[in-house]
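Q: I have 433 residues here and want to know how they pack in 3D. Can you give me a structure?
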Amino acid sequence: MRMVDLIDKKQHNIELTEQEINWMIQGYTEGTIPDYQMSAMAMAIYFNDMTKAERSILTMAIVESGEQIDLSDIEGVKVDKHSTGGVGDTTTLVLAPLVASVGVPVAKMSGRGLGHTGGTIDKLEAIPGFNIELSKEAFVELVNKNKVAVVGQSGNLTPADKKLYALRDVTGTVESIPLIASSIMSKKIASGADAIVLDVKTGAGAFMKSVEQARALAESMVEIGNTVGRNTMAVISDMSQPLGNAIGNGLEVKEAIETLKGHGPEDLTELCLVLGSQMAYLGGVGNSLEEARAKLEENLQNGKALKAFELFVESQGGDKAVVDRPEEILPTAEHSKEVLAEQSGVVSMIVADQIGIAAMKLGAGRETKESSIDLAAGLYLHKKVGDKVEAGESLATLYSNKPISEEVKTTILDNMHISQTAAPLPLVHDIVR
């Protein structure tokens, strides 16, 4: 078998066989297939797509390129959630304990984040003492005992994906549905999930800018998951404006706690209930999504979801006092600044990615892998799309441990548009089953 022949097949839009795809991924992982040939293949896939069968085979070839986490010692259906990213995406902090509170095991492996703010692991490390490094035995024991644990990604999971991702980044082949779908799904499958819920973002703050693009990606990932034996569902949610009000690691932990107390932002609460009902349903709770949601809503109201969060934090070494006294326990910034509205009206648009960049400049995110995060930095939006505002009223509060520049303030003002009217933004565009 020769790589040049496989490239030629895909250039002529001829379906690759399972044997050919497995040979190609194994060779590329081991280094016997060079970058320049895999670049040519990635470009051929970019232009000619892949069939449903090819996408599933490619995903499993990437899974089998490295270690696979065995979670069979955990009782019940292990349900994982993946978000394609956004600004103020606090959902995992709420969803993990919320879904655990109805008896569905959440054994989650999360990463750190590049971009606007850190990943779930960075957010949890804003809680003093929280330990994200657990042995497999301790991880399994905690999930069986408390139904929830979150650890950092470790081991040699999907090495083929790591190589492919780096290659796509420098060859203009990132925006390819089969390559994105196989990258995301391979990591979820290798992490040991029995069922997968996907939150596919669309809008200014998302990778997929249009609903059509997001739907194509969601349908591809759901198809892959179900084809390889993982019950998979997807939500297409809006990221035209940031989710919730808080952007920044410590700030998002506080907002997650408020949400679990039943006092969180309406959009964050609703999305967590939509995603959580899918996770709970796939985990065997209720006979419908509606029944699963009703149980989640009940546990938000009766305090069981908050108690699950407190137990989760305490069991992983964190200070459980964060639940009752987040202002004292979480890191606080030395500097803060209000951004005041320059005119009266209604907030008609918040450009999510630009607001996220402002948060990163305050220190909440990483521009490079080597960048350090200020866990207290970020911003809090006092207004969202559709809210009335008076001139001189605060649009946002900025937080940082370094002096706050006028440039960041200007970025906020330039990207929170105020008009006389505003069209409502849908939170959930579609559900793919």
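Q: Anything worth noting?
A: The chain has a mean pLDDT of 94. The chain has 17 helices and 13 strands.
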